[in-house]
Design goal:
heterodimer; A: alpha+beta; FAD/NAD(P)-binding domain; Elongation Factor Tu (Ef-tu), domain 3; Arc Repressor Mutant, subunit A; five-stranded parallel sheet; 20 helices; 24 strands; about 35% helix; B: alpha/beta; Gyrase A, domain 2; Four Helix Bundle (Hemerythrin (Met), subunit A); Rossmann fold; six-stranded mixed sheet; about 45% helix; about 15% strand
């Protein structure tokens, strides 16, 4: 076979891989390829059929403003839209879209195929590096070479699936596994502990009694992800999700079969995510709780199966059927695909730098679940960072690193590369120190400067600069438009319920009044003045003004703390210091903290050590 | 602070160098091996925690004989090797030995607090314990000493850790509400947040109460005597301390500065202060004395305003006293005594009456305060005083007069005041002596278990104020992003209290209080 040669290859066609290739191909001179196994479509969704979520919605929007693909795909295949935490405050509101899995993959295939990205559907058996170039040898002996290699192989490295006592090799159902990290990449350090993840059984549509469940219809008010789509853009037909609950009987069955659960009988050694526990975890850990939410989500408009979110399991098949049928509405449920757990190898991300490049092997990047993260959005975010930096590095340009105070992607990359890992990583808003700023509404304001560093000229670049101009103009209007204390104005504002006027009041002050919903208030006030503003700009301005006071105040609060947190330190010197215990040194050596904040995050660092270092840096 | 970041062996005198004490202790730490002991004091082998009798030599010259104690790392105060030399306490002797260690054996003079700092950095103590040690070394009251011991035993630290634990629970619940409300369910989360808010609220309130109030009065309690010139402050002062300490004369303004003396009541030391009279004077030196006196009086936890009843025109002090003491009452005749009634009826504070000692006086003497068990005079037989025995009703010695109903009644029924007539007053005893008033006041203040370290008190006040704010947000169901934000900044202060993320200036402050060698 012919030798195939590229500048940049992405090994793996999942969410990380697609995003990596997509940003890399925007640098037009680059020859980019995705190498992926033949039996799976690009950007497939092997677990829950949804994109977004708390914190994750922010990542999707960040990607969109950076020129990523995920938001576009999610919008175009979205069949149920929701705004999570809608009642809890703007900074924690996030978008989640249920997707039609098939539609999502086919849209991804469409965009990749219509670009200049080559897609090579082969199973890679061996990877080696000669000089500056990587050679990938496929199972049909094809040799594919490249300068920059981004590995996004998900759970496929030495993947092992468990359903009860059955153990099969592979990263997901009906797909063969890749070789382990050791044999594919000599010298790449992986975590000692394998990670584990799981997925529930899929249920057939006609076997579910939806009338017994709470219906959750699609929210027409949720703002679509992609900047180029109208805010209420809905391309696919909208359907509902359904909520039901487990009960005493369900949990009793699971507890009776504890010994047959691979997670608890020792068959699985890997560490599962605490934040996304299997139903076995819930049953055995929380003995006093029997009621757990189960969201029954459609996997697609024309797909016959539903995803029961909340009951992921690796119990034997007959037990799965038994416990599922105790749940209200699922009494007659038929299982199309049984649930299983996957154990897989994870790259030790402490060996990656903030561009996701493996420190000891220049040109080699990792992204996605192979780095021990969970979630399509986390994968896509890393894929983007690996892809853009591999491309920039190939072109000899400065790397692009997002600050953790300005983006969830930055938070994630920083967490991954600076912390010792002992369980799969998922983004929460709680991981961000600067949560009031890391909102969905102001994503363009946060991301535009990073995107512009790429010096690309795509539609997103025009959109970003227009957005910022419109935003700045609107903020000027909000700050500088006053309602004078006239009878007419007083009546107007009081009719609208926006409060009174003393002397004069600016739009900004009205928006900040606690009883006013800033978005609706601004919309009404702008209507009165006859100004037309794009909805996304309007939201960003209204919410920014609303939070402005808090952010300024908290800035002062945090200065003291940030001062210490950002203090650089030399981990090398700490290792030489005889006052730090051996265990602490081991941890410090592993993590190599560069500032006090990172040192603080290391697990097992004693308060005394922190106080000592704080007093000495 | 960076001055502490060194590993050199250090030396300092650990005992007082102010006087020629019999024994002085020189302490050294941070040395790697013990080979210097051979030339220094002829020891080739040293047994840890064993008293070695040694001669300290400068080459062949014996400087001093003493006892050497070796504490092997990490089982020592600093966590490093420590040796204590117990030698003769003459400061020149100590200085000579230290110079030898510095010039011949590479020791460096310790910075203030450096021994303790090494204990901290070697994790032999936590920050709170260091602060406790500071308190222990500087305490001048039994309250201070016992609080310091508690802190050294980590009791306070454990309370702070409990606060931090409950804080972390609340914070987790709020994060749960943001990131996992779908999984857990709104109702459950809101129950959780409410109960955790109440829990931490209790802890913070308790700490806040304990961080309020006057701590100085407990750490070094002062009792002040003030009043018009020639009211008899110095006389009373002398009577109380039992010696002619203050200058006493009939010329107004004799006591220009203040005089103080320690008195002991129930084995607690109090500083008794006699101030300059608050007389308006053209004498600038005296005016200085007067305003100094005012400042001093304000710092006193108990202050007694003396009134010369013979010359009193009814004016009252600008600083409210804890009690009034009427002097020269023996110079009044019965009619004059009676007319006092109306003049005193407006006073809310307890009133003591002082007259010259002597058997023939109508009014008995104030008993010397240090002599608690001394003769009490006629007051011995006073009847019960009613449920409230706090200082408000705390008349002393043989004399007492409390305004309000009791006082009025007493006048109405008894006519002229006098020791004998008081005997039959009815519901008034047992008389609280001035001593008892002082002791009780002190005890009631310390029973609030106040937190004695001012850094903690400040941080706790910050925590309380912030939490009060956050609590409102939580109960009013405000934007949870803002609640969480406020909760996070609360955490900065809680960490500071525990000493985890203490900014370096906190450490600086603490260590600046230490003397060399501690």
């Amino acid at each position: 076979m012919n030798d195939l040669s590229f500048d940049l290859i992405v090994l793996g066609g999942g969410h990380a891989g697609v995003e990596a290739a997509w940003i890399a191909h925007q640098f037009e001179s680059l020859r980019v390829a995705i190498v992926t196994i033949p039996e799976v479509p690009l950007a497939s969704a092997p677990c829950n059929p949804a994109v977004g979520g708390v914190g994750k919605g922010q990542v999707v929007r960040e990607l969109d403003a950076l020129g990523g693909l995920m938001g576009k795909l999610a919008d175009e295949s979205g069949i149920q839209f929701r705004t999570l935490n809608e009642s809890k405050g703007y900074a924690v509101q996030s978008t989640r879209i249920q997707i039609d899995k098939n539609l999502y993959s086919s849209r991804a295939e469409y965009y990749i195929e219509s670009s200049n990205i080559s897609v090579i559907r082969k199973r890679v058996e061996k990877v080696s590096k000669t000089g500056d170039r990587f050679q990938l040898i496929a199972d049909d002996s094809t040799v594919i070479s490249c300068s920059k290699l981004i590995v996004t192989t998900g759970t496929f490295l030495a993947g092992q699936m468990h359903t009860g006592e059955e153990v099969t090799i592979g990263g997901r159902v009906e797909c063969r596994s890749s070789q382990g990290l050791d044999s594919l990449f000599d010298g790449v350090s992986k975590l000692k502990k394998r990670f584990k993840t799981g997925t529930p059984a899929r249920l057939t549509r006609q076997s579910i009694d939806f009338s017994q469940m709470d219906e959750q219809p699609s929210d027409p008010g949720t703002i679509s992800f992609h900047f180029g789509h109208d805010v209420d853009y809905r391309q696919a037909k909208q359907v509902s999700c359904y909520l039901t609950r487990t009960n005493d009987e369900t949990l009793a069955i699971i507890r009776e079969n504890k010994e047959r659960s691979p997670i608890f009988n020792g068959q699985i050694q890997g560490v599962g995510p605490r934040y996304c526990p299997s139903i076995e975890d819930k049953a055995y850990r929380y003995e006093d709780r029997n009621i757990h939410h189960v969201f029954v989500e459609p996997e697609g408009l024309d797909i016959d199966t539903f995803y029961p979110n909340g009951i992921s399991t690796s119990l034997p098949k007959e037990v799965q059927l038994d416990f599922i049928r105790t749940i209200k509405g699922l009494e007659q449920a038929e299982i199309a695909v049984y649930g299983y757990a996957v154990e897989y190898d994870v790259v030790d991300t402490l060996y990656l730098n903030k561009t996701m490049e493996y420190t000891d092997i220049p040109g080699l990047y990792f992204a996605g679940q192979v780095c021990g993260t969970s979630g399509y959005e986390e994968a896509a975010g890393q894929g983007y960072i690996a892809g853009v930096n591999a491309a920039l590095s190939y072109l000899g340009r400065d790397s692009l690193i997002l600050d953790r105070d300005e983006s969830y992607i930055g938070v994630m990359i920083d967490d991954l590369t600076a912390n010792d890992r002992d369980e799969p990583y998922r983004l929460f808003t709680a991981r961000a120190e600067n949560r009031l700023q890391l909102r969905e509404d102001n994503t363009v304001l946060r991301m535009a400067k990073y995107r512009s560093r790429l010096s690309l000229e795509n539609s997103v670049d025009y959109y970003n600069s227009n957005f910022i101009e419109a935003y700045n103009n609107l903020i000027d209007i909000i700050d500088e438009t006053f309602f004078k204390e006239s009878e007419k104005n007083i009546n107007l504002l009081s009719e609208l319920g926006f409060g009174g006027i003393k002397n004069k009041v600016s739009i900004a002050e009205i928006l900040q009044r606690s009883q006013n919903n800033p978005i609706e208030t601004l919309r009404v006030l702008l209507n009165i003045t006859g100004i037309k503003i794009e909805e996304r700009v309007l939201r960003a301005a209204a919410i920014s003004v609303k939070y402005r006071g808090y952010i300024q105040r908290s800035d002062a609060d945090f200065q003291k703390w940030m001062k210490l947190k950002n203090k650089p330190l030399s981990w090398n010197e700490l290792l030489q210091n005889k006052n730090i215990s051996f265990e602490c040194k081991q941890r410090i050596e592993k993590v190599k903290p560069e500032n006090f904040g990172q040192l603080q995050k290391i697990k097992g660092i004693r308060p005394a050590t922190l106080a000592f270092v704080a007093g000495n840096i | 602070m960076n001055q502490y970041f060194r590993d050199d062996p250090i030396v300092a005198v650990s005992t007082s160098t102010q006087s020629q004490a019999a024994i002085g202790i020189i302490r050294i730490t941070g040395f790697k091996d013990l080979s210097f002991l051979k030339p220094l004091c002829g020891l080739s082998e040293v047994k840890p925690r064993y008293a070695h009798y040694v001669s300290i030599k400068d080459s062949e010259n014996v400087l001093d004989d003493g006892v050497l104690l070796f504490f092997k790392a990490p089982h020592s105060f600093t966590g490093e090797n420590v040796i204590e030399f117990q030698v003769h306490g003459n400061p020149f002797n100590l200085e000579r030995i230290i110079s030898l260690l510095i010039s011949q054996y590479g020791f460096k003079k310790a910075f203030p607090g450096e021994f303790t700092y090494r204990a901290l950095r070697n994790k032999k103590m936590n920050l709170t314990q260091v602060e406790g040690l500071d308190l222990l070394l500087n305490a001048s009251s039994s309250f201070g000493l016992s609080q310091a011991t508690k802190i050294m035993n980590n009791e306070l630290f454990e309370e702070y850790t409990a606060l931090r634990d409950s804080y972390i629970s609340l914070r987790s619940s709020i994060e749960l509400a943001i990131d996992f409300s779908e999984d857990v369910g709104e109702e459950e989360i809101s129950k959780l947040i409410t109960s955790q808010t109440h829990h931490i609220d209790k802890i913070i309130n308790n700490l806040f109460k304990r961080s309020q109030g006057d701590i100085n009065s407990l750490l070094s309690p002062k009792i002040g005597l003030y009043g018009e010139t020639n009211a008899g402050k110095s006389t009373l002062f002398n009577q109380i301390v039992g010696q002619d300490r203050a200058i006493v004369s009939d010329i107004h303004g004799t006591t220009r500065d203040f005089v103080s003396e320690y008195i002991y009541i129930d084995s607690q030391a109090y500083q008794l202060i006699d101030t300059a009279g608050l007389r308006v004077s053209s004498d600038t030196i005296e005016q200085e004395g007067i305003s100094r006196g005012k400042r001093l009086i304000e710092q006193c936890f108990l202050r007694f305003y003396l009134i010369n009843i013979k010359t009193w025109k009814g004016e009252l002090p600008s600083i409210t006293p804890s009690a009034y003491i009427l002097t020269h009452v023996d110079l009044l005749n019965d009619t004059e005594l009676l007319s006092l009634k109306s003049r005193l009826s407006s006073l809310e504070q307890p009133i003591f009456i002082s007259g010259p000692m002597g058997a023939d006086s109508k009014i008995g003497p104030i008993e010397p305060l240090y002599n608690k068990n001394g003769p009490m005079g006629a007051g011995d037989s006073f009847g019960p005083m009613g449920p409230d025995t706090s200082f408000k009703f705390g008349p002393m010695g043989p004399l007492l007069f409390s305004p309000g109903p009791m006082g009025a009644e007493f006048y109405n029924e008894l006519g002229p005041m006098g020791a004998d007539s008081l005997k039959s007053t009815g519901p008034m005893g047992p008389v609280l002596s001035l001593n008892t008033l002082i002791s009780n006041t002190y005890r009631s203040k310390s029973s609030l278990n106040p937190i004695p370290i001012s850094r903690h008190r400040e941080v706790i006040t910050d925590i309380y104020n912030r939490f009060t704010h956050v609590k409102q947000y939580i109960f009013n169901n405000q934007d949870i992003a803002i609640i969480s934000h406020e909760i996070n900044s609360l955490g900065i202060y809680i960490d500071e209290l525990v000493g985890i993320t203490s900014p370096d200036d906190v450490l600086d402050n603490i260590f600046s209080n230490f003397c060399i060698g501690k």
